[in-house]
């Protein structure tokens, strides 16, 4: 190969040197199945694309003007055999892609519990999955391990070959939880919960990040995901517990404030009801949880009596971002109990014995007054002049 050709290929080599093929070489079974889905779909589409590109070049060369030996048929306009090939081949490809997409959509549903940890390796029913609660903050990730009572910031770990159940939410704006080596991306939204079931099959450290732009600190919103064997995972849990520090509601409100490029942080003790409060947007003292508000609405609402049941909210998502949108924001105060429902778990809230729907007093009807002659203006009549 001449030096000129080598120099011509250098820009291509430089551009490819920055590629990361983690999507095509994942560490988890879910990501591996997604990779296979992409490869099979690409091959099926190339069955049409490649012949078309090749035949385009062949026809251009064969029927060039200087080739007088090629058949010249200016009156040709139809071929049944050619029509069958042109339409049947793409139709078969579409049918195959449709079947593949339908099966992949259901089998790789992120809400679907895992049926295997790898090919030919079913899930061990005697081994409980790892539960992880994920909260997307501005601009960092909070991971809560409810079974171990710990939490971490910008660091996630899981044992190899153990199913992981993620519950995902956000504090303010929408983000996207994505570990390419583990599984596909799942959106994190405030006041909503999404789920992801995954498993890591190979030990190592992998990159996780947000795949949805969420503001100024978005570029630093990444974390390390560690795949450990059982012993190293137990050691990691022990280090997190020994790190000390407690993550309660007040500490969370400080952590929730926007910050960029946060270092790894670990908490050895976590409020067991914190994730529920974050999900229901009621971490602040005296704020009614969404679950309680929806329960009241399902019973018919509070009617006229609940109109004044608000308190000023000094710190909400607008204040967190340092902006002022409209009047001072407000939130609904707790009404189910004499005190705010802080510190109570959902199991501690008892259903009322009276299941009759709540009924409001409604608005009073306006008093009836007879029509006076001075009201004729409102009837489209011209008022009489004093002169």
How many distinct helices?
8
CATH fold name of the domain at 121-279, please? Answer: Immunoglobulin-like
Helical/strand content category: alpha+beta
CATH class assignment of the domain at 121-279: Mainly Beta
Helix content: 25-40%
What integer value in Å does the Rg equal? 32 Å
The low-pLDDT segments are: 320-327, 337-352, 375-387
Main sheet?
6 strands, mixed
Outline the secondary-structure elements:
Blueprint: H1 3-17, H2 29-62, H3 80-107, E1 116-118, E2 121-122, E3 130-137, E4 140-145, E5 150-153, E6 155-159, E7 164-170, E8 175-178, E9 186-188, E10 194-198, E11 204-210, E12 222-228, H4 230-242, E13 246-247, H5 249-255, E14 265-267, E15 269-270, H6 274-279, H7 290-298, E16 310-312, H8 317-320, E17 330-332
Parallel strand pairs: 3-7, 6-12, 13-15
Antiparallel strand pairs: 1-2, 3-4, 4-5, 5-14, 7-10, 8-9, 8-11, 11-12, 16-17
Helix pairs in contact: 2-3
Kindly describe this structure.
It is built from eight helices and 17 strands. By secondary structure, it is of the alpha+beta class. Among the domains are: 159 residues, Sandwich (Immunoglobulin-like); 57 residues, no CATH class. The chain has a six-stranded mixed beta sheet. Strands 6-12-11-8-9 form a five-stranded mixed beta sheet. The longest helix has 34 residues. The protein is elongated.
Briefly summarize what is shown.
The chain has 387 residues and is of the alpha+beta class. The protein contains eight helices and 17 strands.
């Amino acid at each position: 190969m001449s030096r000129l050709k080598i120099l011509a290929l250098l820009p291509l080599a430089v551009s490819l040197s920055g590629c990361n093929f983690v999507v095509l070489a994942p560490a988890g079974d879910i990501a591996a199945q997604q990779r296979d889905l992409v490869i099979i779909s690409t091959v099926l589409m190339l069955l049409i694309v490649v012949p078309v590109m090749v035949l385009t070049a062949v026809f251009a060369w064969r029927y060039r003007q200087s080739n007088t030996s090629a058949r010249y048929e200016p009156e040709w306009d139809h071929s049944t055999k050619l029509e069958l090939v042109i339409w049947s081949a793409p139709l078969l490809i579409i049918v195959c892609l449709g079947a593949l997409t339908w099966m992949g959509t259901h089998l790789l549903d992120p809400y679907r519990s895992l049926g295997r940890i790898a090919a030919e390796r079913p899930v061990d029913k005697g081994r409980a999955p790892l539960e992880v609660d994920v909260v997307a903050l501005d601009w960092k990730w909070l991971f809560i391990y409810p079974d171990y009572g710990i939490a971490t910031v910008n660091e996630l770990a899981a044992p190899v070959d153990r199913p992981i159940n993620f519950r995902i939410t956000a504090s303010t704006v929408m983000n996207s939880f994505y570990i390419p080596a583990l599984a596909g991306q799942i959106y994190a939204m405030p006041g909503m919960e999404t789920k992801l079931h995954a498993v890591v099959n190979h030990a190592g450290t992998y990159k996780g990040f947000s795949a949805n732009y969420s503001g100024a600190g978005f570029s630093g919103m990444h974390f390390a995901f560690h795949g450990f064997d059982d012993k190293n995972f137990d050691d990691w849990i022990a280090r997190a517990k020994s790190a000390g520090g407690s993550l309660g509601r007040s500490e969370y409100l400080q952590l929730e404030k926007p910050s960029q490029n946060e270092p790894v942080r670990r908490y050895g003790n976590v409020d067991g009801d914190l994730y529920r409060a974050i999900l229901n947007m009621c971490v602040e003292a005296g704020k009614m949880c969404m679950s309680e508000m929806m329960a009241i609405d399902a019973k018919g609402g509070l009617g006229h009596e609940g109109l004044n049941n608000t308190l000023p909210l000094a710190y909400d998502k607008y204040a967190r971002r340092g902006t002022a949108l409209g009047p001072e924001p407000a939130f609904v105060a707790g009404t189910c109990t004499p005190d705010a429902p802080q510190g109570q778990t959902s199991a501690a809230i008892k259903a009322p014995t009276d299941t009759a729907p709540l009924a409001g007093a409604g608005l009073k009807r306006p008093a009836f007054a007879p029509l006076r002659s001075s009201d004729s203006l409102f009837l489209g009549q011209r008022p009489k002049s004093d002169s």
